[in-house]
Automatic annotation (TrEMBL):
It comes from Handroanthus impetiginosus. This is Gnk2-homologous domain-containing protein. The keyword Repeat applies. It comes from the Eukaryota. PROSITE patterns: GNK2. Residues 1-27 form the signal peptide. Residues 29-127, 133-240 form the Gnk2-homologous domain. The chain crosses the membrane at residues 277-299. Coiled coil: none annotated. InterPro entries: GNK2, GNK2_sf. The lineage of its organism: Eukaryota, Viridiplantae, Streptophyta, Embryophyta, Tracheophyta. Residues 307-332 are annotated as: Disordered.
Length: 332
């Protein structure tokens, strides 16, 4: 009923999906960060010194693609800016997420931080090209729900997402991002999806598909954002991304030898990759059908049991169950 707000991020509710070993999650108005419980360093260690100098180097080193990865000593780090923002916005976002990171995670070797326009991830483990879908953070916009023709809405959204996932996965080694709008009745769905471009096409697709399947499939809020360590997905009922910027070619760090249009050199998928992609899609669909059958079967059984045992709550059980499916996605 209300027109969509110009900037629909004003109200956010956070749902943080975690299991205990991930460590503490905190979110400020627009940020979420996780200090992982995978090892601590001491104040005097070289790890801290290396991490400190690495964090300071990131914003000046990031280029037009918005992606940068580097290592200092034992520390590996990745930064990724949303693909539609300007370089100066990207750099100031990275300044923002790196600035107080050592206060936020004072001795953890691994951490992830997401802001609206960029992401930072560092680890003592090798994280380059290493797809990860957890921990994940989901935020939604509570000002606008889809209330009529929910099935139609989900169908349009599924189609849009599938198209964008394929397009992003088919991106280059410098940038894997895609955005588009799909009309839905009198409304529209605007969406942007992105992977860290160090991922393979298959891993990029898998990351995005498992994020929406695990966290967003049944959601009927008109605005949703999912952050994982390797990919990002957002849709809203109002435009939020800069389409013009996305159409600009990404200049490589080394100037390109042949001028402006590098589309065909950077966006090719070889046949093998396409085949793998299709196999993954089929496997995912079959997995979902199987999960659905198991789910229906278990609910039926549980309902039967509940009759004899009024204390048992289906609600509680379902929550645990969806947690399990999330674990399955994680364990790849
Ligand atoms: C690491 O440090 C945090 C506090 O900063 C503490 O809660 C955690 O237990 C420590 N982990 C290990 C493995 O020592
Ligand atoms: C960035 O990641 C790639 C793998 O995607 C790796 O080959 C390269 O060495 C990394 N760059 C740095 C500076 O570590
Ligand atoms: C990828 O990351 C996981 C932890 O997230 C780590 O156990 C694994 O060794 C990494 N893979 C490579 C090739 O380093
Ligand atoms: C949207 O739905 C959620 C729960 O499903 C509810 O909490 C929220 O108030 C709804 N928002 C509007 C604008 O109706
Ligand atoms: C969108 O991107 C274009 C091209 O980079 C830029 O000129 C324009 O200022 C951007 N618009 C906004 C609102 O940032
Ligand atoms: C890209 O396009 C140009 C001209 O259209 C062509 O010469 C070149 O071979 C193409 N590169 C690839 C990798 O397809
Ligand atoms: C990948 O990108 C290339 C060049 O833009 C295009 O020709 C090809 O059809 C795309 N493949 C898919 C599966 O979208």
């Amino acid at each position: 009923m209300n027109p969509p707000p110009r900037y629909p991020l004003v109200t956010f509710i956070f749902l943080v999906i975690l299991t205990t070993h991930f460590g503490s999650v905190t979110s400020q108005s627009d940020d979420a960060y996780i200090c992982l419980n995978n090892g601590n360093y001491t104040r005097e260690s070289s790890y801290r010194a290396d991490l400190n100098s690495l964090l300071r180097s990131l914003s000046s080193n990031v280029g037009n693609s918005g992606f940068y990865n580097t290592s200092v000593g034992q520390v590996n780090a990745i930064v990724l800016c949303r693909g539609d923002i300007q370089l100066h916005q990207c750099r100031s976002c990275i300044d923002h997420v790196t600035d107080d990171m050592l206060q936020l995670c004072p001795n953890q070797m691994q951490a992830i931080r997401w802001s609206e326009l960029c992401m930072l991830r560092y680890s003592d483990e090798f994280i380059f090209g290493n797809m990860s879908t957890s921990p994940a953070v989901m935020r939604w916009n509570d000002q606008n729900n889809v209330t009529s023709d929910v099935d139609g809405y989900k169908r349009v959204r599924r189609k849009l997402m599938g198209d964008l996932f394929r397009k992003a996965a088919n991106g280059s080694a410098m940038q894997k991002v895609a955005a588009d709008m799909a009309p839905f009745g009198y409304n529209k769905i605007f969406a942007l999806v992105q992977c860290t471009p160090d991922l393979s096409a298959v891993d990029c697709y898998y990351c995005l598909a498992s994020a929406i399947n695990a966290y967003g499939r049944d959601n009927t809020r008109a605005g949703l954002t999912i952050y994982t360590p390797s990919c990002y997905l957002r849709y809203e009922s109002a435009p939020f991304y800069n389409k013009t910027r996305l159409l600009e070619p990404v200049e490589p760090v080394e100037p390109p030898s042949s001028g402006k249009n590098d589309d065909n050199t950077t966006r090719n998928l070889d046949d093998n990759t396409t085949r793998n992609l299709i196999i993954i899609v089929i496997a995912t669909v079959m997995g979902l059908i199987l999960a659905l059958c198991v789910g229906i079967f278990t609910i039926r059984r549980l309902k039967r049991k509940t009759k004899g045992n009024p204390d048992r709550k289906i609600g509680k059980w379902s929550r645990n169950s969806s947690q399990k499916i999330i674990q399955k996605f994680r364990s790849r």
